[in-house]
Amino acid sequence: MQPGRPISIVGLFDCARLAGMDATVAQPQYSNKAWLRDVRVRALGGRNASHLLVRAALLVGLTAVALPTMLFVARESWSTEQGSHGPIVLFTGLWLLWRQWPSARALAFQPSGVKVALLLALSLSLYTFARITHIVEIEGYAMYLSLLVVLYSVVGQQALRQLWFPLFYLAFIFPPPESLIAAVTLPMKVELSKAAVGLLHLFGYPIGGEGVKIYIGQYELLVAAACSGLNSIISLTAISLFYIYIRHQAEWRYAMLLGSLIIPVALLANFVRVLILIMVTYYFGESAAQGFLHNTAGVIMFTVALAAIFLADIAIRPWWLRVAGKRVDGSASD
């Protein structure tokens, strides 16, 4: 403003507006679209905060449920020969989940809250019953079912399908019911003991079998102890499935073919174990056999079983590729 120049009324109002004296003009002005955008941003911020609170509560609840059960399973199962694969399955399964999580996350969709609540109520009720009664087999699976329900509530059904093998594989960390294992493996133990006795008898060893007992020289072995390696058939299945999935997950037909060999391989590995146990007993005595049974039998069985799976893969693979090539050529000619 130049000195000596008269000030108009309009000029005074301009000065007041520029100085912030007009409170009405100084208030922020929103268009309708800008106002709606601001409301949406604030609503989303509140929704994200509530989701964070819900997830934090779920994390605390999962820790409270999973930690005591995992400690119980590790103490009661992982310290035995039948459950010694537990830590291996746990860490390799978590690695598989981490590897496949990005592709599963892209399919995430939040399911119905009512369905999640019903599934969670069922799984937690089963878990509470097993926890009170100290049935480790039921407790472990009930806890794992609760974890799956929580994961389902976060990512939905499609994402769970994408993660099907890691989630199925992780279930092997929990021991199956002993009564089920006994019912399945008892006929196998009897047949294996008969086969071992028959083979060694052909080579002239003073051996015989009667019922649940094996006689070699002046020693006596129980079939249940000699064939106890069959109780770890779950361990062999888990490790073999992991190998097959890593090597051949894209070829599901070939993977199924190799998977069908797991039980025969487990029987072969236990047959070798029984032969070694009988020979150690015959040549070195019962105390040496017990030392072998408790210290090295499991390692030998795993080594034989995994080596058999590897060799079967190497032997069958070329034949499978030839058959697959002929199938492709035949369909192309049609």
Question: Mind explaining what this structure looks like?
Answer:
- The chain is mainly alpha-helical.
- The protein folds into 2 domains: 67-173, no CATH class; 178-323, no CATH class.
- 77% of the residues lie in helices and 4% in strands.
- It has 14 helices and 3 strands.
- It has helices at residues 9-18, 23-26, 32-76, 86-105, 113-133, 136-162, 164-170, 178-202, 223-226, 233-248, 252-259, 262-284, 286-295, 297-333, and strands spanning 207-210, 213-216, 219-222.
- A hairpin with a 2-residue loop joins strand 1 and strand 2 (213-216).
- The chain is globular and about 75 Å long.
Unreliable parts: 1-30
What share of residues are in beta strands?
Answer: under 5%
Alpha carbon gap, first and last residue = 94 Å
Total beta-strand segments: 3
Count of separate structural domains: 2
Helix and strand succession?
A: HHHHHHHHEEEHHHHHH
- Order of strands in the sheet with most strands: 1-2-3
Largest sheet: 3 strands, antiparallel
